[in-house]
Amino acid sequence: MDLTSLYTDIVFEHDKRPLHAGLREPFTAEVHHVNPTCGDEITLRLHLDTAGTQPRVEDISYDAAGCAMSRASASIMADLLIGRSVEEAAATAAHMEQVMHARGREAGDEDVIGDGVALVGAAKFPNRVKCVLMSWKAYQAALLEARTLGLAGGAA
């Protein structure tokens, strides 16, 4: 598989059969992001489990419209982060952002970002980086909103 190309089979698969798509309840926070450059949009709901010692990502649901790259990224992100602690999710999101801002010089660790490695080809195209990272930024904004409401702790 050529992970340096823009559209891979994994991207097409997540675009055609998105995981965790459709807005669900209950949710802790909801955000709406738009990429004004290309018109991609996402409404993302985050549901946290705060019963334990560390908050966990109980669910991420979303409604995404836009290019295949942005919709696939939302699917991949939700699948990666659901079930993880907020701290683990922060490390995954940080690695994804680092790889996407490396302009194609960094392959990404598949053990950390899973199918997200299929999005790395977009790192060579600055406008496409925004498409890929929009859902990740929406997750971080939802987490911040949950914190503002006092419903989450830990790292961003």
Automatic annotation (TrEMBL):
Pfam families registered for this protein in UniProt: NifU_N (PF01592)
Organism: Brachybacterium equifaecis
InterPro entries: NIF_FeS_clus_asmbl_NifU_N
SUPFAM superfamilies: SufE/NifU (SSF82649)
CDD domains: IscU_like
NCBIfam families, A to Z: SUF_scaf_2
Lineage: Bacteria, Bacillati, Actinomycetota, Actinomycetes, Micrococcales
Residue span(s) of domain NIF system FeS cluster assembly NifU N-terminal: 7-131
Domain of life: Bacteria
PANTHER family tied to this protein: IRON-SULFUR CLUSTER ASSEMBLY ENZYME NIFU HOMOLOG
Name recorded for this polypeptide: SUF system NifU family Fe-S cluster assembly protein
